[in-house]
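This protein record is not my work; I was only asked to verify it. The record follows directly below this note.
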Amino acid sequence: MSGLLKACHPVPAAAVTLLAAVLAAAVGRGLSGAALVAAAVGSGQLSVGWCNDRVDLGRDLVTGRQDKPLVRGDARPAAVTAAALTALLLCVPLSLAGGRLAGCAHLCGVAAAWAYNLRLKSTAASWLPYALAFGLLPAFVTLGLPGAPWPPWWLTAAAALLGAGAHFANVLPDIEDDLATGVSGLPHRIGARASALVGGLLVVASAAALVAGAPGRVPAYGWGLLAATAAAVLLGVLRPAGPSRIPFLATMAVAGGDVVLLVVRGAGLAGRA
């Protein structure tokens, strides 16, 4: 069980699940609605994480990735495969329980993540599944409200930009190992330094869309979030080269700040364009 837990990429899975649940509460889904969103998003994240480690097993063995449970033998490949498929099957009814349109939006995002794992990771379109999956997350949340309203454009844009930025940040620590095993997504093609810059700009653009796009006067917290995001990105770009999970964790922290900003500025987001 410990090996399975580590193989699901628990930190990003928990972060995305928590952010989705808080967003659901912020737009008025209530406690039960937020719990349903958390269950659906959590099962989807588990399926994606387990799928990722199982698909990458061959490459991880070649590069000797001792931080991977499957390489260390902490989990069996068959068990990870079964866990990924079980979580995916559970994700379908949990997603559709919030409404047909909402469920389809979330399942499209999960399908995009699986497509990344299975094929798109090694293409120039490697950023697209991240942008699509993150961009559809607000739609999954708001489409579960009465009347099934779509989220405002600025919220979708902020989420999609954040997802694309997360992709560039997440690739950085493993870029050399990936290249050695034939993985050539967009970050690998433009190089580590350029990827850090592009990822940082995408994250800043995400924060800017959220701060400037929401209706009403921008609070001091909003400008502070934007300034802190820009500062964090600058430090990430200027930091010495080398493997580090800090850029990705910083991206998740920015996502948390974004959700807090949404709560501070109030609910009633659904349906505003």
